[in-house]
Write a structure and sequence with these properties.
With about 240 residues, the chain is of the alpha/beta class. It has 10 helices and 8 strands.
Amino acid sequence: MMRRVGILGGMGPEATILIMQKVLAGVTARDDADHIPLIVDQNPQVPSRIAHLIEGTGADPGPVLADMARRLVAGGAQALAMPCNTAHHYAGAIRAAVGVPLLDMIALSVAHAASLAPRGGVVGVLASPAVRKVGLFEAMLADHGLSALYAQDETAMLAAIRQIKAQGPQPEARQTLLAASTEFHQRGAAVQMIACTEFSLIPEAVSPEVTAFDTLDRLVAEIIWFSMQPEERQIKAAP
């Protein structure tokens, strides 16, 4: 029997729908029962990560995410996944609240980047400025001998993210993502990761000259793998 995975969603709502679509598409199915069982908490009222981390004016999302995790586990989730890169800054609050594993999109993505980039190299991180501010990827990348590169025009990146949240994918956001990806390539980052799930909605905007992957896709693959594993091979929850 496949294991249920709980999704801490709503950050943003379209990204939550996208991960469900990707999990659905990632399974070869002959009937409904062949698909991955998901329990989804689509909660757009999670306090803004941008307000809390960049502007310093918003409420801490950690307690809300912890409550969501408890509800998902009470509903039968045997692992959790969160389709928001920045929200992984609050992973500690989630892990402290429940006894099931959080499938870590950041760790999974760094491991994949390390398989693509040589030691001593740089990885372009197409993300919210909040990701750079909290150093979400730095320590894990350093463990693999890698460093992170971020867009010089953080104002444009944040504006693109806000535009996608408000209006969906737009030409201006695509232009911003392409400009950042091209800049990374010029600065030596031939390996790049889409590390904002708003940008996951416009992956085609990344420069065709680079090797790019979406952190959301690494999480999707892990959800499918976890759900299909026999119980004795499941990932153990962090202590």
